[in-house]
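Objective 1.3, modelling of assemblies. Example input:
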Amino acid sequence: MSAPRAAHITGWGHYAPEQILTNKDLEKLVDTTDEWIVSRTGMRERHVAAAHETTASMAAVAGLRAIATAGLAPDDIDLILVATLTPDYPMPSTAALVKEAIGNTRAAAMDVAAACSGFVYAYATAHAYVTSGLASNVLVIGAELLTRFLDYTDRNTCILFGDGAGAVVVSASDAPGGALGIELTTEPQGAYMIWLPSGGSRSPSSGETVARNEHFIRMEGRETYRFATRTLASTALASVRKAGLQPSDIDLFIPHQANIRIIEAVAKGLDLPMDKMFVNLDRYGNTSAASVPIALAEAVNSGRIKPGDRIVMVAFGAGFTSGAITLEWTADPARGLAGEAAVNPNDVHVRAPVDWDSVDPIPAALAELMRRPGGPSVPLDDVIPDEPRPATAGATQT
Ligand SMILES: CC(C)(COP(=O)(O)OP(=O)(O)OC[C@H]1O[C@@H](n2cnc3c(N)ncnc32)[C@H](O)[C@@H]1OP(=O)(O)O)[C@@H](O)C(=O)NCCC(=O)NCCS
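Predicted structure (tokens):
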């Protein structure tokens, strides 16, 4: 069998939990202000998963929406890649759970770990599988449930991150288009600039690690900021040049949504106006591996991308990692909204363990915030969606 020449995005979709956490809500948790967060990051609000949701459930909804947009059936997918740093469990893979939840019987499924660059790394993997002939349709998902891994006493980190999932279907094609230039980098000297100390072989979780707050994300913000501003532009430029193009040839950049000032620095570094940068971090915060595919889906569905456009997806993250894909868009953008509407999150179910139940997954500080008058409007602990609320719940709602 001769290898297909190109790998195109044929489907895209995203999912964000209903619950919203605003900067004003965060003012009640840590010593911060809405004004500080907006001016230093550009963020205004982020989505927070409810107790019945997991990374796999959000990934499955986004994945099914991408499959619907592509006009495919779940069993047309022969490889499922889930990029995440917040898997449901260390094992099995989140991708294995997603495979069953979307109703696929034949795909190989695996997770990709490259932190916030994970979706771009997974996309590059999908491109390699498709162009080599090893797969015809690959479902690439970035999904994160970061709000369960944050220290709500640490104002340096807890204001930055949110939950959500985005996905694309990458399909074989003999027509030109798809990825034209790919650049991936890893710089281990930054390995402990963003990290999560416990839960791995170096320091398995225990009462002691929990007492030391080692189950939460830690970050050196300024060092990470320096790496991001230096690397995002250089990685994007390398991928654009591999495509035989110049930055001015690119119609839209889809950058990792970590900080508006980082995105502004990328635009400046590439000598481009900010209207070439897609931005939605004001409504999502940083959703790590989900950030680029959520932004891509919103960009296409809002008419910012049309067939023939050249776009660059570019990300950086823990590791330190970075990655960029320069690609030519070929799909009909109008398909996206119907694909999003085709999947109801309440119809998607992830297999649960037998004879085991988790502890309440919502961090105590978030749960406490939710119970306060003026707190977020939808109960986070709605374990069974659509079940009638207890009579007292209304008192805490806005
Ligand atoms: C985290 C980040 C927003 C901080 O912004 P900054 O302008 O660099 O701020 P600094 O870290 O220099 O801190 C400045 C001051 O604000 C304080 N500060 C930090 N977070 C604060 C908050 N949420 N509210 C109010 N003040 C805060 C700091 O304590 C510091 O006070 P000090 O001068 O008294 O020590 C920024 O460094 C950043 O975006 N880094 C990259 C993070 C990232 O992208 N992570 C994910 C990678 S995928």
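Residues 221-242 form the longest helix (22 residues).
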